[in-house]
């Protein structure tokens, strides 16, 4: 079995940034990715536009030239693919890592299909997008229910219920409404989330005022049927039903805590945030690091590409015994 200096689990922007820093430092590396390269971004809504400016999601010091200011999904996919090729990153795709165990100072990384790889250090960069937050209600696994929104044309001239009131829910609702979809947003809170991008707020609120997007606030969906959803009003206790040809459960995603636990990493039992050194990103397992959004636990809005890409340099500095790069606290996104 070939022994790598570093194995990186996850080929998203932050995992690729780690691969680039390892390559620059002359370390042999392998990136294991369960899907295609930058699989999470590939699964984003097809017409999404990043809220960050393109330069803020660059990796490896490579410029990200676009004609506008903020990149779209396809531009980002092109960019990260080119960055991976430019640095000759060594990756294996469609390899789902199941376990990482340390013995006699070396790590064995095992996949769900029984492959094993060995490394001196391991960087977990598995993000959060593979793990939707399930509501745990009857009917959630029916074929017309999805935890991901892709594109609008599938839904034109149908009734769609969106569960959730964050950015993903609002962006999907606006795009769907503009493609002749009858949209209802159901949310347990009394209004849209305060974290919704400020430039989306007037658009969605005005569409609600006009009655073009319907909202059912202070309410939860308790059951999904073939053609309807059942809703409970949290204030009045009243039960009602809404027609639903499709249901989009856009209630967020959460890093794979079980995988980290299996690898021996300690996590906060409530927040699921792994215990790690805030400067080096080393976990409670010496030589095992977290990089990017995987370290966020339930606070997924706190780590994104803009700050997550920087973890790579600090981790590789620590591995190389160099002075560790200090990751800046980001106050504002964009
Ligand atoms: C719609 C949307 C818009 C966004 N816009 C922005 C923005 O404008 N700016 C910004 O900075 N951030 C943005 N984000 C957040 C950002 O995309 C994520 O924070 C970012 O992808 C984190 O990068 P990552 O490398 O840590 O994780 P990911 O990109 O999620 O990569 C993790 C990778 O690990 C793989 N993986 C997972 N488990 C395993 C396993 N067991 N074995 C092998 N591989 C595995 C996954 O397939 C995935 O490819 C946005 C997110 C969404 C959903």
UniProtKB/TrEMBL annotation:
<dbReference type="InterPro" id="IPR023856">
    <property type="entry name" value="Bdr"/>
</dbReference>
<keyword id="KW-0560">Oxidoreductase</keyword>
<dbReference type="GO" id="GO:0016491">
    <property type="term" value="F:oxidoreductase activity"/>
</dbReference>
<dbReference type="InterPro" id="IPR036188">
    <property type="entry name" value="FAD/NAD-bd_sf"/>
</dbReference>
<protein>
    <submittedName>
        <fullName>YpdA family putative bacillithiol disulfide reductase</fullName>
    </submittedName>
</protein>
<dbReference type="InterPro" id="IPR050097">
    <property type="entry name" value="Ferredoxin-NADP_redctase_2"/>
</dbReference>
<dbReference type="Pfam" id="PF13738">
    <property type="entry name" value="Pyr_redox_3"/>
</dbReference>
<keyword id="KW-0285">Flavoprotein</keyword>
